[in-house]
Amino acid sequence: MTEFERWLGMDLDDKDLTAELESVKDKPEEINDRFYRDLEFGTGGLRGVIGAGTNRMNVYTVRKATQGMANYLLEHAGGKPQSVAIAHDSRIKGVAFAQQSAAVLAANGIKAYLYPQLMPTPALSFAVRHLKCDAGICVTASHNPAKYNGYKAYGSDGCQVTADMADGIMNEINSLDIFTGVKRMDFQEGIDKGLIEYIGEETVDAFIDSVYAENLSVDASNLKLVYTPLNGSGLMCVKRILDRIGVKDVTVVPEQEQPDGSFPTCPYPNPEIREALQKGLELCEKVQPDLLLATDPDCDRVGIAVNQNGEYVLMTGNEVGIMLLDFIARVKKEQGKLPAHPVAVTTIVSTDMVDPIARDYGVELRRCLTGFKYIGDIIAELEEKEGNADSYLLGFEESYGYLSGGYVRDKDAVDGSMLICQMAAYYKGKGMTLVDAMNALYEKYGYYKNDLMNFAFEGEDGMKTMNGIMDKLRNDPPAEIAGVKVAGRSDYKESRSYGDNEGVIDLPKSNVLEYRLEDGCKLIVRPSGTEPKIKIYLSGKGATRGDSEAVIQKMKDAVPALLGI
Description:
Blueprint: H1 2-9, H2 15-24, H3 28-35, E1 46-49, H4 59-75, E2 83-88, H5 94-107, E3 111-114, H6 121-130, E4 135-139, E5 148-155, H7 163-174, H8 187-192, E6 196-198, H9 201-212, E7 224-228, H10 235-244, E8 249-252, H11 278-287, E9 291-295, E10 302-308, E11 311-315, H12 317-334, E12 343-347, H13 354-360, E13 364-368, H14 372-385, E14 392-397, E15 401-403, H15 413-428, H16 434-445, E16 447-456, H17 459-475, E17 480-481, E18 484-491, E19 496-499, E20 503-504, E21 513-517, E22 522-527, E23 533-542, H18 545-563
Parallel strand pairs: 2-3, 2-4, 3-6, 7-8, 7-9, 12-13, 12-14
Antiparallel strand pairs: 1-5, 4-5, 9-10, 10-11, 14-15, 16-23, 17-18, 18-19, 18-21, 19-20, 21-22, 22-23
Helix pairs in contact: 4-5, 4-7, 6-9, 10-15, 12-16
């Protein structure tokens, strides 16, 4: 209440915040939710609901975070001038948050390079590397609902910040008063003094050229597409790369073509869910394309629906990742370009089906924690420590994130869109759809099935509930799940595996629990790093598609009791 009264008494720059504070002054629960904590800065930066308060995304929390980053950079600069690249997508307040970040950096004597238009998140990662910046900021909440915005922070390598850097920035943030501890400069003054500079078309062109350099020389001019950027940042870059690979017949979903942070036709703008693609699917019924392509608002993830005899079949992130690995390895082998020691990377929650495919092509498969920065770290290791940059084939996450080159250190839906279209064109030339190609892989390797369950826990009590669930599972692990004995478990927070795979886990510590069942199924419990929810990843394999689906359903039915909800 003390902090609420202080905010209410301030002459705030953003009058929307003052109006919001006035509207809740007689609502203690609303006040508590806005002020019971500060937004936490971690390896994913900041993410939260837009609004007034310390637990909200607003110009004050953004400025404070940027001052913390500025302090950290200057402390570790060794006297070297510092610079930061900044981008934003279509989110509400995105332009203001990006400009205010630049203004705070300028006030600290740090050069800010700012994209003048909305751009995909991977274009920010590219700009950090291309302009040789010391850090990066991308104002985005990815696929979250419209009420959210966020602030992704990047290191000089173009990866999202390491745990050590995040902790260092957080320590600086915690030492600041949100109003008096932040240095300020007028945005236009920063431009006039040369401390803020807009990023030019040369960098955008270089980004598109770098994506195109990853193409597999497959002519995709036989494809007919419907594309939706889901009112986000993908339109310009995706259309440019599609044109480069020969895709000319592209119909853009009109309701979702232009940037709009309120996402009026897709309240949850996530290409993983059917509802977000509904407008695109309706247009497909009229246009009858080979493929529906959908990129999320910051254009780092891409989902597809495939025309299978007039019905549009949504493909999962795991399925597309599997097909891309097979396709890239297959085509490079056909072209005589498969490296001597090829490497692919995926996460601990991605499908086990990728393992036998990798073995068939002689590809070393490395697994890492969830979060594309860990895939980026492995790309960096291949380049810098192992001197084997050309060996990297593909990195993918089950949540629709893909990257086939080292030009950025984040997932890239521009690259993913290009590769998916070349893959669809390759199989179309053989009289097959991507559904046919996936079914052929199932027939060869077995019917692996993966599913995801989300359980949301809003507010202060929600965080306590989430922590309580994780503590109970950790301290009192289940002996069986869905009537099947647990053969082994892994606690990634303790870096230990028990039972069937006993030993030390050589990965960074993370609040993730994995249970391996005697029948070969697997269940992973992971609190989201960006939303107030617990994610349950389920995987199983059956002799037939029906068998694998039945096994997964049995585990899904057992999950609420496992979590105690």
